[in-house]
Amino acid sequence: MAGDILGYIPLLSIVFSSMGVGIVFKDYIAALISTIVIKKTKDIRPGNRIKISAPGVPTTKGDIMHIGLLRTTVMEVGDGERLPSVRTGRLIKVPNHMLISNPVMIYGDTIIDEVISYIPRPYPDSHLLLNSMREAITGNGHGLIEVGLYQKEDRLVIHGVFEVKTSEMADERSKILRDFLVKSKQIDTEIKQAEPEKIAIPLPNVERD
Predict the structure, then answer these.
(1) CA atoms of 22 and 63, how far apart (whole Å)
(2) By residue range, what is the domain housing residue 79?
(3) pTM of this prediction exceeds 0.90
């Protein structure tokens, strides 16, 4: 495989040298060589969710839509492990050489995540807390890995670890946390919605008293 890749390099060098653009188009040459490496290794392919960390540029996180000759099209998703990992609707064109010259995190089909809740005094029954967290995780369709309970200063900490599909990893922590708080009777099941404030909008050409 490595021999096949190296076999393309002299050919590309001759082509670009004959055009007199070796230095000016060095980024294009690097991108073409990178494309060959990506296609051969198949570590990065359409459908993967990746996260690119490059010095001096913002972190790029998204789903690979297409790998082109020079650039890869990535559908951006929310960055940061504490933010919802949902698609933003923005497409990012990433030069292919960045995919092999910088650290790239490649997400699998599933990812391990966690949810944490802090319970103040007076403490409820510990079995209720543990069972409520288990039910909140499994009830949202995720794989249960572990649920733990420990004390920190003047509060209890309930910690749940779960497995979620990468493609469905939106703001799952919030959903699980809310279900846990309801099941463990930390909040009421009924959430009252405030009545919208009525605003009087004056109509044009209407005489006022």
Answers:
(1) 32
(2) 8-107
(3) no
Q: What is the CATH number of the domain that holds 167?
A: 3.30.70.380
pLDDT digits (tens, 9 = 90+) for 104-125: 999 988 989 999 999 988 888 8
Residue holding tokens 């497409």?
A: 91
Please report the pLDDT score of residue 149 as a whole number: 93
Q: Which of 142 and 1 is assigned the larger pLDDT?
A: 142
Q: How many domains does the chain have?
A: 2
Asked if residue 198 is part of any domain, the answer here is no
* Range 51-56 contact pairs with CB under 8 angstroms and sequence separation of 24 or more: 51/79, 51/104, 51/105, 51/107, 52/94, 52/98, 52/99, 52/102, 52/103, 52/104, 52/105, 53/102, 53/103, 53/104, 53/105, 54/98, 54/102, 55/102
* Type of residue numbered 172: E
Average pLDDT over residues 121-133: 91
Return the residue matching tokens 């949202």. Answer: 140
Average pLDDT over residues 191-206: 48
Q: How far from 119 is each of 24, 67, 129, 149, CA to CA, in Å? A: 62, 48, 9, 10
Per-residue confidence (pLDDT) for residue 21, from 0 to 100? 53
